Amino acid sequence: xxxxxxxxxxIREFARMPGIGRRTAERxxxxxxxxxxxxxxxxxxxxxxxxxxxxxxxRCCGMAAVDPCPICADAERDRSTVMVIExxxxxxxxxxxxxxxxxxxxxxxxxxxxxxxxxxxxIERLVKRVREDGVREVIxxxxxxxxxxxxxxxxxxxxxxxxxPVTRIARGLPSGSSIEYANxxxxxxxxxxxxxxxxxx
Length: 201
Description:
Blueprint: H1 5-15, H2 22-34, H3 37-53, E1 55-56, E2 63-64, H4 70-73, E3 78-85, H5 90-96, E4 101-105, H6 123-132, E5 137-140, H7 146-159, E6 166-168, H8 184-192, E7 195-196
Parallel strand pairs: 3-4, 3-5, 5-6
Antiparallel strand pairs: 1-2, 6-7
Helix pairs in contact: 1-2
């Protein structure tokens, strides 16, 4: 039996989200339906506001309510050291680990299967920033998986003409793991043990 169209529409929207199948989408939709009107409205307003108010930082390509973001605007940060991360959510993990440089968000990782090529990422903007901002080290804080390895190699090759040293966080981060799930002490060790990144020609 099909649900009324407004419920089906909500289920379809939830099911479009990453990792959400039909069953989970149905549970979420009925949770919203059972919620008090003010709770459902608060969710709707939060979705509206995040689309309306969150901006892309013109310096680091991260997300914030202001442009430039608070980290890029902080004069106390070490602007000569740039941590390259895949997604904005990875930043929180490095902040907890005590990193005091600045960030550059790629917007994903190179993944040919999903149609994500290097030109879909912010690599060109990173190279321009490194050339113009007096950067002395670029640290690749990408995931320790197949896509992360490929992305690290592409970024290192793109940065090779700048002459700026490119390092990668040490393998204290387990192979195949995601930055966002690593704890602060593991990331701090990985930062301390970072190594030079070879561009392999």
